[in-house]
Design brief:
By secondary structure, the chain is α/β, with parallel strands linked by helices. The protein has a single domain, classed as Rossmann fold. It is built from eight helices and eight strands, in the order βαβαβαβαβαβααββα. It has an eight-stranded mixed sheet with strand order 3-2-1-4-5-6-7-8, with helices on both faces. Helix 5 links the parallel strand 5 and strand 6. Helix 3 packs parallel to helix 4 and helix 5 crosses helix 8. Bound molecules: NADP nicotinamide-adenine-dinucleotide phosphate. The site of NADP nicotinamide-adenine-dinucleotide phosphate has 26 residues, from helix 1. NADP nicotinamide-adenine-dinucleotide phosphate (NAP) binds next to helix 1.
Length: 282
């Protein structure tokens, strides 16, 4: 029997791994993307056992630069012709400013540009397998985000608390704009807050580790964080739902910062220019 394919970035840890286990249990061919071969192989074995399925594959890929993300998208396109669902789950909460080879701040790259590139480059394959879906694992904290085209991409406004929220706002603006671009294509894109979940998020660096681990003790398990993304990926009733934000399973109106049309257009344009992709993909 042929299985439909779901690709999950950040599938080697936290919420992404829990999503992978659940999708494997539901009989999907699961492809996890991990930047580390060691962590990826360990997760692969765990997902096969916990998901009770041999149909789990590993793709090594780093979302930290434009070129590597594009290489990853090309490799995925060549290998997984039955792609039905892309879950842009990988994300970081940076505690220190890091600028990549493209001159982009790390969280802007991983939380916004990588989902932009993967969605655009995998779109033709998704459309060929329509109905198909893209899920952006976002965060309710986006409502506190601010975006400044001249500062946020290169980290000039970097802040260990706000950069996470700012880059999640970028991902929400992208979700809304991309949904318009692909309307009526048979492919949908939606964003989701998966809950407040006990994972490794924000634990790079000692202070981040101490702060996050202290407050996280009472948070929910990664399995709880997988519930809403899996539902968005699979529920038949959501087949035509496009461009929405779900707080867990509840659809929410966008906050004012995500309804700024000028900001949305300028960020969208910036994504195409910076990635040097062409919008012929859509
Ligand atoms: N935890 C929460 O309470 C919460 C709340 C709202 C939203 N979210 C969102 O949920 C998503 C998953 O986060 P999580 O909580 O499960 O955190 P996590 O345990 O830290 O997992 C993050 C995943 O992203 C991967 N990743 C980070 N940078 C990458 C890169 N450059 N290339 C490829 N993969 C990369 C990580 O890989 P490595 O293992 O190699 O680092 C890891 O697999 C994120 O988008 C996050 O913003 C989480």
């Amino acid at each position: 029997m042929k299985h439909n394919t779901v690709i999950i970035t950040g599938g080697n840890a936290g919420i992404g791994k829990a999503i992978a286990i659940e999708m494997a249990r539901l009989n999907w061919h699961v492809v996890i993307v991990s930047r580390s071969s060691e962590r990826g192989h360990a997760a692969l074995e765990e997902i096969k056992i916990a998901g009770d399925s041999p149909n789990v594959s590993l793709e090594i890929g780093d979302l930290g630069t434009l070129d590597r993300t594009m290489q990853l998208a090309e490799s995925l396109t060549q290998k997984y012709s039955r792609l039905k669902v892309l879950i842009n789950n990988a994300g970081i909460w940076p505690t220190r400013k890091k600028i990549n080879l493209n001159g982009l701040e790390e969280a802007f790259m991983v939380n916004h540009m990588a989902p932009f590139i993967l969605s655009a480059m995998l779109f033709p394959l998704l459309r060929a397998n329509a109905p198909a879906r893209i899920i952006n694992v976002n965060a309710g904290l986006y409502v506190f985000g601010r975006f400044d085209l001249n500062r946020t991409p290169m980290g000039a406004d970097f802040n260990p608390l706000r950069t996470y929220m700012n880059t999640k706002l970028c991902n929400v603006l992208f979700t809304r704009r991309f949904a318009r671009a692909i309307q009526d294509s048979g492919v949908t894109i939606n964003a989701n807050h998966p809950g407040v979940i006990r994972t490794g998020l924000g634990e790079s660096g000692l202070s981040g580790r101490i702060m996050h681990r202290t407050i996280k003790r009472f948070w929910k398990s990664p399995q709880a964080g997988a519930v809403a993304p899996v539902w968005l990926a699979t529920d038949p009733q959501l087949e035509n739902t496009n461009g929405q934000f779900f707080d867990l399973k509840r659809e929410r109106p966008y906050a004012a910062n995500a309804r700024n049309e000028i900001l949305m257009e300028s960020l969208y344009e910036y994504g195409w220019i910076k990635s040097k992709l062409r919008d012929f993909y859509i």
